[in-house]
Amino acid sequence: MEFTDALSGEEYETISFMKPVLHILNSRVLAEEKDDTELTKTSILEYLKGKYTDPITEELLDTASFVDPRFKTTYISAHHVPTIQEKVKTEMESAAAVCRESPTESTEPSTTSSEAKKPKRSLGSFSKEVRQLLPCPSPALALNQQCSIYIFAHSII
Prior knowledge:
mainly alpha
């Protein structure tokens, strides 16, 4: 009952929790015991396996678990991890390309003001100056480094 109560919260994110929940259902909650009838746990497990072993669904669930820092690769099959890593890297590269192409905010003062005021700078504008002075690795190298750091960093939970 505690497990279903914890799972039934409406404010929880669900897609990244699917792999851990399926693992718990398979290994603990629906694990076969001596006095079980054949129709209960076995039929539920067969239904779940049929529903969530579709390759497209499994890739979606693996990706969602991978990008959740609480789970990362914990619930992903070892032979799927490289594929998921490459998919996430590709998504990150395309997102970075879109960010580079989009116009950035101007820090120039507005000409409508009668007084010439110095524009307020954001904290991020200072870090941009520092980043421009540092040597920049290639985007592919930086992406590989970030992915490695992400995977090998300790889990949040």
